[in-house]
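PROTOCOL LOG
Step 1. Enter all chains and additional molecules of the complex.
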Amino acid sequence: MRADRGARRSGSVRQGIPDATVARLPVYLRALGLLSEDGVSTVSSEELATAAGVNSAKLRKDLSYLGSYGTRGVGYDVQYLVYQVSRELGLTQDWPVVIVGLGHLGHALANYNGFASRGFAIRALVDADPDKVGTTVAGLEVAPLQALEDVVRSHDIAIAVIATPAAVAQDVCDRLVAAGVSSILNFAPTVLAVPDHVEVRKVDMSIELQILAFHEQRKVLPGAATAEVNGSLNGLATVVSP
Amino acid sequence: MRADRGARRSGSVRQGIPDATVARLPVYLRALGLLSEDGVSTVSSEELATAAGVNSAKLRKDLSYLGSYGTRGVGYDVQYLVYQVSRELGLTQDWPVVIVGLGHLGHALANYNGFASRGFAIRALVDADPDKVGTTVAGLEVAPLQALEDVVRSHDIAIAVIATPAAVAQDVCDRLVAAGVSSILNFAPTVLAVPDHVEVRKVDMSIELQILAFHEQRKVLPGAATAEVNGSLNGLATVVSP
DNA sequence: CTCACTTTGTGCTCACGTTCACAAGCGCAT
DNA sequence: ATGCGCTTGTGAACGTGAGCACAAAGTGAG
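Step 2. Run joint prediction.
Step 3. Record the structure below.
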């Protein structure tokens, strides 16, 4: 699911933050935000780890990649850590975002509050349907698809969300990239091909359900198991979970 | 290396499909579906890998966990592979699903076609808002939150989707689990605590955007190439203390 | 039948990620 | 100021995943 990353392949010292860690930082940030709202000023790795649903050693190692921001014997200062994590994630600035495709999902995304609160500003909405163009969604006027490039350039947009049907996603993607977008969040159920310098992350709800179905099926399996060859001994070792 | 996880248990290969592989099977399935629609009857690992956006060796290894379904010198039979992958994922049966929470997102999910086409049948919708209860969404009547347990039991539902506000997600989750649900797809931006036998997968759009922002920020950094990028931010990034 | 060619299946190696376990460091009580 | 208890930061071991490269196994031509 990771798009190819040019950074690591260049042979030079990659002393950055591991991808797995980056993926967890937003979770820590959310937990810290809740603690902060509750007026908590200091938190131990154990407490924060529990709140974030991870193991405390992992949390400490993750935070250690950002620097030594804890105090031994005490814990971490919540406010300070919020700032440090935000800075590392690049959330101290605002990121203008465009959403392409305003079906049910695009509509839901445009109305989602979780974006603005994290420094993402939805600046434009684009759709191909003439009936939708010109209407107002979440306080923004929907622009026509042919205005895509203009919209991207005029708002200096680097991050785009694709919520179109799969059939047109690649085309939209190509145009976004050509217009200067370099990060794409793809909700269309299709694999997007992009140049190396563009980062794509995908969210596919159908895939998530299928993964759940796989594990669900395993649970139901009465040891007898799957056709064909083999009669494995222990039908259910239940290796699932994390 | 993986081979011995299965081999260790008995003479036969089964039981241990790596999580990373399971997560890719739905992608292969989608690609195979497209090929099938186009009337393609046979496909090589190279072609399928390209369509799925992965490396061909990885694809072959993934498929080898299911069994030896290819023919050397020829490739894989598309129809047969569709069947085998579907069977492995548990998609040869229908999975009844309930969606809890019918805000913009729940609404979008209820109307999403990608579910039904993969063997998931949305059987019930539940919401706490009295104004929504009783209305019809995507052809289903919205049931009240207090009917949650009844709904789960009467439809024999094992897989649930949570699309509620974060504040009530854990409570809904607990009730779902108590009612017998054992797989949960969570869209609420919160960490859910569940018993070991319950599988949770989460989809958090805000987190995905934050991950993109991280990489986007890195790109913008001054052009000192790949070298000491992080060094200028905090001198302690290396593993050694000064 | 034999040879040349194609494509699968997999052994091997390296890289990444997780977890344990403990020394180092900090604050507080005495 | 000294020692005690607590929590961080991290070395090291282990587990998982990716990808190369090649032997094995099939096809088809001569």
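Step 4. Note key features.
Chain B is about 40% helix and 15% strand.
Residues 1, 3, 44-46, 57, 60-61, 63-64, 68, 70-76 of chain B lie near DNA strand C (CB under 10 Å from a C1').
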